[in-house]
Amino acid sequence: MIIKGNVNGKRVSSKDLDEQLQKAVKEGTRELTIQANGQHGIGGRIWPRGEKVKVTIEGTAGQRVGSMGMEGTEITVKGSSSDDTGWINCGAAITVLGDVANGAHNAGAQGILYVQGGGGARCDTMTKKNPRFPDLQSWYFRDMGDSFAEFKAGGIAVVCGVNPRDPENILGYRPCVGMVGGTIYFRGPIKDEYSKADVRVVDLTPQDWEWLTANMRPYLQAIDRMSHYQELTKDINAWKKIIAYTPAEKAKAKGKLKMGLTEFRLNVWEKEVGKGGMFGAYLTHDRSVLPYITTGEERRWKPVWKNDKYLPPCAYACPSRIPSHKRATLIRQGRTAEALALVLQYSPLPATVCGTVCPNLCMTDCTRGRIDQPLNIKEYGAAALNLKAPKKAKATGQSVAVIGGGPGGLSAAWQLGLKGHTVDLYETSSKIGGKLEMCIPRERLPKRILDKELSRFAEIGVKVHVNSVVDKKKFEKIYKDHDVVVIAVGAHEARVIPFPGSENVVAGIDYLKEVNFGKPRNLKGKKVVVIGAGNAGMDIACQAYDHGAESVIAVDVQKPASFGKEQEMAKERGTQILFPKVTEKYDAKAKKIYFMDGTSLDADMVIISIGEKPVLDFLPADIHADRGYIVVNDLGQTSDVKVFAIGDATKPGLVTHAIGQGKIAADKINSLLMNYDYVPEERTVIPYERVKTQYYEVCRTDVKFTPRKEADRCMSCGSCRDCGMCVESCYYGAITRKKLANKSYEYVVDESKCIGCGFCAGVCPCGVWEMAENV
Amino acid sequence: MEPASRLDQNHKLSLKEFPYIIRWREDRCTRCGRCTAVCPVKAIEPAVNIQRTVTSEGSSPEPKVTRRLTHVVKQSTDIERYCIGCGTCALVCPTEAIFPEYNFQHKFYHFKNKGGIPYMRGGRRNDPSVSTLDKLKFTRISMLTDPALDAGRHEFRIRTLLGRNLSADHLPIKVEGDRLTVDPNVFVPPVREIYPIRIGSMSIGALSPHMWEGLAMGITYLNEVEGLPVVMCSGEGGMPPSILKSSAIKYFILQIASGYFGWDEIIHALPDMIEDPCAIEIKYGQGAKPGDGGLLQAYKVLGLISKIRGVPQFVDLASPPTHQTKYSIEEAVAKMITSMSMAWGFRVPVYPKISGTKTARAVLNNLARNPYAAALCIDGEDGGTGAAYNVSMDKMGHPIASNIRDCYLDLVKQGKQNELPLIAAGGVGKAGNLAANAAALIMLGASAVDIGKYIMQTAAGCFGDEYNRCNVCNLGKCPRGITTQDPKLYRRLDPDKVAERVVEVFKAADVELKKIFAPLGRSTELPIGMSDALGVGDKDIADRLQISYVC
Q1: Beta-carbon separation of B491 and A288 below 8 A
Q2: Domain range enclosing B243
Q3: A548-606 pLDDT, tens per residue?
Q4: Structurally, how many domains does chain B consist of?
Q5: Do B225 and A259 touch (CB under 8 A)?
Q6: What angle do CA B164, B165, B171 make, to 5 degrees?
């Protein structure tokens, strides 16, 4: 049957031609010849149902010959065909005796396309594979246009490469982009442009060759080119195969760079910029990469066992730097006697001062006081009462004079005596002890304690010269006879305010001396007013009550400076404290004291206690004094290198200050006499937060003093307790305790294990471990 | 007077004022100390904690006291040691026991001015909202109207021109016989064909040696192995002779700024240079801190930097906000562009970089009339910096989108839009959308874009974000090793890995640019100023940028 594509000179539409064709087949026609005139889609969509339908196309075939072609349909195009030949072919065998234009077998799934010539662009693209049917076959005799086999997913394409249009490249420009399946057999040269990310070119296997040579024969017969059979099948090596990478292979290659960067650095980069990289000439370290967690030299921080780097608050607050924490340490080690005796290296009067009259600045600042009660350092002092003087050093032959037998002078004499110097102590009065002896009420400072402690001076051989008034002349002699002179004359001249009637006022210091010297005046039934409500004023008030006063009122121009036991005792006896009261006048006849605020008080007796100033009439002119006090530096040095001054003669202070200054001056004097460099204490106080108070349970009731209990309560600020917390806390076991000579020890860090985390420092109860920059 | 112990908290800050709060889980922690060892700012430290509990177990009240002291990891409430939220602790923790959590209620800025010193930091504008660039979308998707391209299949050549492009009628071309020849007597400005995404100026000094070398290796690889001509600007800090004298110098733009650091080394190297640099950038301003100068804080001025820059160690290195000897725009531009052009015999494009500003158009107008001006780079407010006052970073500057748009439209009015390239910077890739931001700026009129912070984040894992995470670039404590001169820190960074990431990032961005350009049918020519492809769902932005409003 012949179907004409051109009737009466008029082109039949694609629709009409297809309808004729479909009708003919339905009616049983099995061989048709189409005389085409550019009609589209000829030969497709014919369902012969197990029979064969042959369609021969003559004339000009339009686009999409055999599109959606079915199994059993055999189409022969006598000449070339236009675009999309075999589009979505589902089984038709299409033979084109000429070239196929662009897009042949685009989206083809089954069937065969035999091409006698070559293919246009984008042939065999989007081809499929359906396991229910035999594979699609596309055979091209010559070569392919550009973009061949894009997104090919199945089927076999054969490109014979006979007489190609481009003798250097038979597969066109950039074939196989996105190809994921199917096979391409080709014979002839191709360019390096195929999609290497998707496919690879390999040799044929014997199985390939068997298939190719077997199927070559019907192909060449169909296109009438059996003459080439020999040539096309003589050499397996003339052929190559393109297959897609498997998904697994692609996954493996995914993200892989053409060249590794290390390879690039070594072979390209360093060739350009030099070995070691562009900074090679500047850097001293090697190029290796460091982990975030490092050990040894590469740590950012390192722990340092800074035992005793800081002073504990107790020792820092104490003018004599008495190391109470060391006492506690020794006691914890079972060396109690040694511990209690330690204090005598710092003060000659521990029971008198620490244990009795001192306001204990050490305890005020004690870290323990921040969680419950401060360490009872006062009792440690008191416990030193019966100690014997320490052993004196060998005599040095140097001599020192100390003028004044008060706490400062005694401290200096003690220290210098212990160091083996000859000490002459000159005291104006008949007894040494200064204000401790003369002014402090015996009730507060029992005489037996003071005497007991003063007796130690004889033990170390300090030569005490009592009743030695030092005037200018005497001073000159002392100065001449000694290598060094220490002035510790205290302040014994009461300050008086020159208000009207002040001539009828009694000086507080004189009153106290009267009492201590056993000649107290009788105050029975008298009303006493004390001007100055400091601690001396409180002592005076107590003494006045004790000697019969009916009432004692202490007045002050400001909030009184008195505190502690002194104030407590005075108040217990009934002392009233009034402030602010500025005295206007004292009328001794009317027995009335008047104040600037217009008020007045009855006063049988007025005692003034607003401080004392030193008596310095013996001083030579070249020792400078300013506003009544001798000018000294921190070490007690005056403007004369040979002369030191300490205590109230230089600045009003507490007993403990005078003792501290005596020790410091003595240390400096010793360095001068023994000719070595004096190194002043430079340690600062430990910051409270370094001490981990959390380790200690809060004491809920008052603790009864025993040396051992207090030693356990001591937080050992800045001083190793030897508890081993650091050793156990270090995750890496980098810290060990190392025994040293003399029962000593230290904690050491193994750098190869330590990462510089700071746990040792963070958990150390005493704040001994410290993190330092690891440079 | 209250005892000191009772006054402890009076002037302390509560953790609630802090921007990041450490979440530490006692039940998971092994006390290995890795977190405290790495914390760059010592915001966490080991400490002790005491629990005292009273229980009663019997049938009648029988109090029993239990004390339990544990070792903990504690966050500091010292403002100088505030947790920066970097999360290095979480990175190294083997048991997921610790991480910093952002605190939206923080009052950090109220307190971070101790000693009367305003808060300084690195990073960029702390603004987590969606930027204008990220609001722009590509609404012209040609399918049946124009020949659209397939990004996966078609070949693209995404390139841009850096340099003054003479218009056709100004090109000194003449016909000689049947051939076109160039008149050798007429000056033709140098033009480079480069990739339109560049790595913007980050100095050796601001960056660690490992970071800088990683970037440098990465772009060299892209040029030499991948054929992608990505270039990178030196930043102001010079370059070592090793690279100045290498053939790789052609991939680098040398920056000169008001500090003139490292320029004596560059000039000494001139006679030995075997290739010209890609271009010279004259820095007048920086988008992150407009009106403020450059600053390399003393923490970072260590041996290597002092040698390369020719300065003493351990001193703050300031580049003043202005060039000291230039008093007017005419003088500044003419003097600097001419001098820098002369140095390489007029073979190298020379262009200025300014910070985003309302006055950008005036600068552009001046440049348009200067035949030696090769481009104008504008750095918007979202740019990054190694060190600046927070106020400069957060509150000063101009967004890049409208700035670049205004400038481009000015050029269009003068008919010079194809002659003087505009380079946009500042916040490109801020939210990770590098290609989209770059394409949007190109369609608004930019010929190229610069990235800085983005590449630090993608190539080296920079922790910084717009919630002020990390941002301690200024202190030399960078936990990633990016912005530090401390070998213990920067050796955490493997230059090879940085380079590899640079390569990956640009390859990926290249694919994304293709995905954006393909529907426009553009494969060889950048859609510069092709604003009809843009749309935005915000009418005000649409009006301001003269692009279509879509909804």
Answers
A1: yes
A2: 133-155+193-521+529-549
A3: 999 999 999 999 888 888 899 999 999 999 999 999 999 989 999 999 999 999 999 99
A4: 2
A5: yes
A6: 120
pLDDT higher than threshold 70 for residue A45: yes
CB atoms within 10 A of CB A226: 13
Of A513, A528, A614, A622, give the one whose Cα is nearest residue A575: A528
Our CA-based measurement puts residue B38 at a distance from the nearest CA of chain A, in whole angstroms, of 7
Q: How many CB atoms lie within 10 A of CB A27?
A: 8
Banded model confidence at residue A377, pLDDT cuts 50, 70, 90: very high
Query: Which residues of chain B neighbour A177 with C-beta distances below 8 Å?
Result: 152-153
Same domain, yes or no, for B256 and B108?
Answer: no
H or E element at residue A240: strand A239-244
Residue A378 identity (one-letter amino acid):
K
ipTM value, please give it.
0.92
The mean pLDDT value of chain A amounts to 94
B62 CB-contact burial (10 Å; exposed 0-12 / middle 13-18 / buried 19+): exposed
- Both tokens assigned to A459: 């033990």
Nearest CA in chain A to B477: A300
B30 in contact with A at a CB cutoff of 8 Å?
Answer: yes
- Exposure on the CB side of residue B479, measured as CA atoms within 13 A: 27
Please indicate, yes or no, if residue B122 is contained in any of the structural domains: no
Q: Are A587 and A595 in contact (CB under 8 A)?
A: no
Scan residues 192-231 of B and list those with Cβ closer than 8 Å to A.
Answer: 209, 213, 216-218, 220-221, 224-226
Q: Are B426 and B377 in contact (CB under 8 A)?
A: no
Q: Give the separation between CA A744 and CA A766, rounded to whole angstroms.
A: 17
Judge: B242–A280 Cβ closer than 8 Å, yes or no.
yes
pTM: 0.85
**Which residue of chain A has the CA closest to B49?**
A694
Is residue B325 a contact partner of residue B257, using CB atoms and an 8 Å limit?
Answer: no
Please give the domain boundaries of chain A with CATH numbers for all domains.
2-253 (2.160.20.60), 258-289 (no CATH), 303-307+721-773 (3.30.70.20), 313-387+687-713 (no CATH), 399-491+614-674 (3.50.50.60), 493-613 (3.50.50.60)
Q: Which residues on adjacent β-strands are paired with residue B350?
A: B280, B373
Q: For residue A119, give the nearest of A179, A161, A61, A60 by alpha carbon.
A: A161
